[in-house]
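Protein data sheet
==================
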Amino acid sequence: MDRRVKYTKKVIKETFISLLEEKEIKKITVSELCSIADINRATFYRYYLDIFDLYDKIQDEFVTELKNIILDNHERNITTSLLVENLLEALLKEKKLAKVIFNKKNNLLFMDDILDICYKYCQDTWLEKNPHLKEKDIEYASIYLFNGALGVINYWIANDFDGEPKVIGEMIEQLTRHGIKKYIDN
């Protein structure tokens, strides 16, 4: 990709994310974005259909990056805590985007693809160790685990990334393996 195209798309993305920090997507106009980014509308429309297309493309790119981390780590057969740590490091690199995407006002359906990959990972791993498990049981267990992990990650992001990714990853692994017993029993 041409350097000018990369630069232009970067400016559009950064301007859009800044606007999303201030207001809902449906209140952002192409004219406003172009004015702040100091580009003309034709340039915007060269790359995107509208504001929602821009959001979808940014989100898709981010989700693809997260999915690649999961797939890469699955192939290397690493621990849950290290996988979570790697995901959290990716979120830290894109703090503003992570805050916008994980914002409760925005739709968390983007996580469906990631959750599907995690489910497949759990299914393969759990069935390998326990071939007698029923698919429905794996489904319920994985939904419980992933929603809990997602809740911790949302909380971490909402609290301005408070806590080291390594510590949060270890906590999620402990909660996954042992539940809250460690945290409530003295």
